[in-house]
Write a sequence for this structure.
């Protein structure tokens, strides 16, 4: 028979292992989402750089594809792990998120394309940083790095801004996803 | 009070069982992932998985993904039951001491 101290240490070990496994599963699914969104965002900014007049259409299409892709990855992950990452409540959260962003950028304020291109990634990254407080520091690191680099582009990079953002935001998300998978 | 399960209670085996029990029933972990999560060496992890498998607490499945061998370890129903009883026993021990550790 063991004493209460050993029992308590064993339970702490169990809790720590459970936390690690859950975090690993969350990172696994989140990394797929990051890589998918990173690819779409990269394409969006590249499109904005090459064909700025059609940028609005690109982004509308890419956002719809992103939400659909998130559902697909979530369904795949749920079959494999039993963890649901994207359900109806998440869809509502996305709608509210986009609606609030639209209210800020196009109703209360009238942002220029450059301001839009800076606001949306920073706004998105705010969610990552907040999520990171619960799900792991990787989200916080990715969110803060991309936000800082987006601001660098906004203030310093002139006409190259969209191309910079393709690599910073799109590339950053893909790199973050790859890094999460490795870790 | 129930007895401690000596097969599960060994620290590395406890971590293996805790990790596998954190997954939905029927879902397993690859050997390499389990190694990363437990911080064990290949040989040590392999030996303890074998002990758990002999007790019927885990099932080990070996397959090839492409040309790469892949070993997946899954907690069996008996393993899940034993682990739940073991956790309950640990909680009883703490409760019996009045929560003092």
């Amino acid at each position: 028979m063991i004493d209460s101290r050993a029992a308590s240490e064993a339970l702490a070990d169990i809790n720590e292992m459970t936390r690690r496994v859950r975090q690993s599963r969350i990172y696994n699914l989140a990394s797929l989402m990051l890589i998918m969104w990173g690819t779409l965002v990269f394409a969006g900014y590249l499109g904005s750089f090459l064909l700025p007049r059609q940028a609005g259409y690109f982004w509308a299409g890419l956002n719809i594809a992103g939400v659909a892709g998130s559902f697909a990855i979530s369904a795949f992950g749920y079959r494999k792990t039993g963890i649901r990452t994207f359900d109806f409540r998440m869809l509502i959260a996305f709608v509210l998120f986009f609606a609030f962003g639209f209210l800020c950028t196009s109703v209360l304020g009238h942002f220029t394309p450059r301001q839009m291109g800076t606001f949306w990634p920073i706004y998105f990254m705010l969610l990552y940083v907040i999520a990171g407080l619960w799900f792991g520091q990787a989200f916080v690191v990715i969110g803060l790095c991309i936000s800082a680099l987006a601001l660098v582009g906004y203030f310093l990079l002139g006409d190259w801004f969209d191309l910079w953002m393709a690599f910073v935001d799109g590339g950053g998300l893909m790199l973050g996803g790859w890094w999460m998978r490795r870790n | 009070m129930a007895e401690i399960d000596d097969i599960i209670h060994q620290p590395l085996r406890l971590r293996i069982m805790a990790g596998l029990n954190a997954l939905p029933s029927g879902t397993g972990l690859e050997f390499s992932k389990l190694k990363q999560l437990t911080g064990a060496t290949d040989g040590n992890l392999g030996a303890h998985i074998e002990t758990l498998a002999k007790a019927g607490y885990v099932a080990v499945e070996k397959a090839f993904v492409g040309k790469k061998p892949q070993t997946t370890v899954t907690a069996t129903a008996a393993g899940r039951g034993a682990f739940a009883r073991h956790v309950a026993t640990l909680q009883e021990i703490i409760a019996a001491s009045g929560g003092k550790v």
Notes: The mean pLDDT of chain B is 90.
